[in-house]
Amino acid sequence: MKNIRKHPLFILLHLSIFLLLSGCGADSSVSEPPAASAEAPRREDTLLSLCQEIYEETAQNRASAIHETETLSVVQEITGKLGVRGITAIDGENQVDMTNPQQMHAFIDALDRKETADLSVAVVSAYDRFTEYDLHAEKGALSVVKTYYQYLEGAFENRFSVSFPADSWQYTDEGYFIFAGKSSSAQSLVLTMSDDAEFAAWRVDPLPAQYREWNRRYVLPVGYGQNNLFLVDWTENAYQDLDFYDLFDKFYPQVFKQAAPYTASKDAAVGAVYQIPEREFEQVLSLHLRMDAETLRAKTRYLEDAGAYVYRPRGFYEVEYPNLPYPEVVGGTENEDGTLTLLVNAVYPARETSRAFSHELVVRPDAHGFQYVSNRALPGGQDCDMGWHTDRLTEDAWEEVYGQACLLTEAQQTQLEEDVLTAAGQVSAVFQADVSEGEPTPSRLTREQCEEAVSLLGNSGFVSTAKDVPMKNPEQIEVFYADYREQRSSQATVFQVNADRTLDALTFLHEDGKLQAYYIGVSFRADGTPKTKEARFRTLASVDLTPKGYFIYAYKETPQYAAFCQYWRIRPLSDACRELTEKYIRGLSYVNYNMLVTDWDSGHAETILTPSMYEDLCRIHTGQAPEPQNGQIPADQYEQIMMLYLPVNREQIRAVCGYDEKTHSYPYEVVMHRQYPPFGEVTDYMENPDGTITLTVDGVWVEKGTDCAFTNTIVVQPFEDGAFRYLSNSIEPKDTAIPYSDARPAAQ
Predict the structure, then answer these.
(1) Are 730 and 602 in contact (CB under 8 A)?
(2) Band of the pLDDT at 347, cuts 50, 70, 90?
(3) Which of 29, 189, 285, 448 is 20 to 30 Å from the Cα of 626, by its Cα?
(4) Helix/strand/coil (H, E, C) string of 540-582?
(5) What pLDDT is attached to residue 682?
């Protein structure tokens, strides 16, 4: 537990910026909430009932609240009313002063003194949404229960609730209370394949109303996302590395009261290019920058003959991470020349800091608005990794990513799409086989239907496969790979049948040393006829074919949410090895614990025990993820599964895995899922006289281009009811070193 107390007076409460406030940057006219002269909360007034009453009252008095046309002022009104009723409340973006901060101070004091204390905090994010944080301090440790409520059909409903211990908390010199932890919710695992991170940064100390107004007017509308106005040093008429194209995006809605129409291509492989008339481009940039056309044209690409600026919107490869810092004005000076000098801190909740960096911004208000005059970074802030920020691609980089032409002509692309749709028509009956007239289409194909579709395509001469279904006609891929190695022009198309009732066709192209993949996605109408849902090409960095038959390919620019390498096993395992892999190996990890990466036997199994093993063993046993209650797993359930699959006893488990005698339970440890780890497959086996099975397992590591990174020898003991127990493991490096596991070591 990291306890950092930098400020001697105040104590802050946990606030989530999980729910973002919409539209607050545009409202610079709201006043600050009245000072909280709080009544003591009545015992019968729960936070939920108070919110119900206050929200309904607000809706009656302000019809616009329901439509969120004045979001910030509405949120401010609601938090003020909660404060008068004795509730500690704040908004989701720290744009309104916390009500009853003295209660937060007292809680943090108790936390700092290792005393027991409790506090509930309301985080208001919009008219119809709020989050309740129930905080508990005990022995210097902070635990949190977060409950999200939404107003639906006349009443607030509990939409979800999570509980978690805070791994760290601190109260900063800037007056923020910050905490972070990991909740037991599995939602983020599905999306990000990583722990469900929780973090919050709440401003406890109030800010002067003037600072908040300056922030809303001059800084928040631009912020730190997708531009570098506040990230680099520059001065008026010496703009250094300022990106004017990003500022065009930021200023355009303020000039024309609508989003810019110059949008990126829906195809990630295609870069959109526009020519924007000089009058329009210069009008937008001159809104907040005092500069002449000559300077602007020198800093951009201007076509004199066309009287236009070349503009390329940010594309697929120029997106930024979603968790950004946000600016907060913490000081300001009105200068004699009419300018304002603002001191701005970057608050970065995801990095657990209320001052990731600081900068001095000078603006010039006038009768028509204002201009930005200069920006410079200030020393003394924390060293901040600005990894969230992505610069626009340079001319050369843009040409490298988007400028390559498809190896197929337009006529060839059209013909390929027609051929793919014709092939898809041959399997449409499979996709419609279980669809009854008037009934909704089942969401997924069965394994048998996938196999049938693969066979139909294969019998027609196409390369075809599906998940866990051996590839048909793989020799066409081998021919393509041989042509590629001999620098001959070649192409081959692979059809992938998907359980979600779609079909993918990926055509590999090689010509004059260039590698591309042309993708066509096919879906099926209600009557079963196929249609193209997407068609695009991407440049490939490499293709490879391993000795055991893994065809591995990598894109030059990895698509978002995709693996660095993609692959098919074009030479299938034997049926027996595939079944053994599915039963005994498929659910195990090489990177989350030491079970597969160290040598052990039944006499020393306690040496590999770690809490992170339970999740995978539970999935193997039940077919589902664990379902913890308040972050805990009942001991009987936990121990039953661990002792079933490993030769360990109850005492050994309790000594290592965090057994809580009071609750008779174990903490649920959500493992850090690595997105693309090696995986094992059974390549040989031996049935032993004592009924055990010795499995020879090769580690396949496609990211390293090998189908035998290392070899495991694993002994398992099957039981009559279908369950089994792992008895021993030994591992031998082959093509690569044994992967390191950062699992927590067993207690000694």
Answers:
(1) no
(2) very high
(3) 448
(4) EEEEEECCCCEEEEEECCCCCCCCCCEEEECCCCCHHHHHHHH
(5) 97
- Write out pLDDT tens, residues 116-167: 999 999 999 876 788 999 999 999 999 999 998 888 877 888 888 888 999 9
3-class secondary structure, 225: coil
- Tell me the residue ranges of DSSP E strands in 85-140: 88-91, 117-126, 129-138
pLDDT in tens, 571-624: 999 999 999 999 999 989 998 899 999 999 999 999 999 998 999 999 999 998
Distance CA 241, CA 331 (A): 26
For the sheet with 530-545, list strands across it: 469-472, 463-466, 490-498, 502-511, 514-524, 530-545, 550-555, 566-569
Residues 6+ apart with CB under 8 A from 177: 11, 12, 13, 14, 15, 104, 108, 169, 170, 171, 201, 202, 204
* 647 within 8 A of 739, measured Cβ to Cβ: no
- Using CA atoms, how far apart are residues 176 and 181, in angstroms rounded to an integer? 17
**Rounded-to-integer distance, Cα 564 and Cα 642, Å:** 34
d(CA 125, CA 624): 34
| Contact between 127 and 65 (Cβ < 8 Å) | yes
Res 747: pLDDT: 36
Mean pLDDT of the chain: 86
Mean pLDDT of 440-453: 82
* Percentage of residues in the chain having pLDDT higher than 90: 65
Dump pLDDT digits (tens) for 298-329.
999 999 999 999 999 998 788 888 889 999 99
pLDDT digits (tens, 9 = 90+) for 414-446: 999 999 999 999 999 888 766 555 555 557 889
Closest Cα to residue 50, out of 18, 86, 75? 86
The number of beta carbons lying within 10 Å of the beta carbon of residue 441 is 13
> What pLDDT, on a 0 to 100 scale, did the predictor assign at position 51?
82
Q: Which residues of 13-34 are buried (b: 16+ CB within 10 A; e: fewer)?
A: bbbbbebebeebbbbbebebbe
pLDDT, tens digit (0-9, with 9 covering 90-100), for 668-727:
876 655 556 799 999 999 999 999 999 999 999 998 999 999 999 999 999 999 999 999
Residues paired with 540 in a beta bridge: 555
Q: Which of 28-42, 495-509, 666-680 has the highest mean pLDDT?
A: 495-509
What is the Cα–Cα distance from 356 to 385, expressed in whole angstroms?
9
Residue 416 CA: distances (Å) to CA of 40, 267, 530, 532:
73, 18, 14, 11
d(CA 535, CA 540): 16
d(CA 15, CA 21): 13
Pair of tokens at residue 150: 């939404």
First to last CA, the chain: 22
Q: Which pair of structure tokens corresponds to residue 172?
A: 């900063």
Cα separation, 397 vs 250, whole angstroms: 23
Taking CA atoms, 430 is separated from 120, 462, 497, 499, 532, in Å, by 56, 17, 11, 12, 18
How far, in Å, CA of 716 to CA of 410, rounded? 56
Reduced to 3 states, what is the DSSP secondary structure of residue 374? strand
C-alpha–C-alpha distance, residues 69 and 127, integer Å = 10
Q: Which residues contact 327 (CB under 8 A, 6 or more apart)?
A: 215, 219, 220, 223, 224, 230, 344, 345, 346, 347
Closest CA to 703 of 548, 544, 513, 560: 544
DSSP state of 401: H
User: Residue 171 corresponds to which tokens in the numbers above?
Assistant: 């109260």
Tell me how far apart the alpha carbons of residues 92 and 15 are, in angstroms, rounded to a whole number. Answer: 7
- By DSSP bridging, strand 155-171 and strand 2-5 are parallel
**Number of other residues whose CB lies within 10 A of the CB of residue 322:** 9
Amino acid sitting at position 702: V
Could you count the other beta carbons within 10 Å of the beta carbon of residue 475? 11
Q: 């359930």: which residue's tokens?
A: 637
Edge-to-edge strand ranges of the sheet holding 302-303:
274-277, 308-311, 302-303
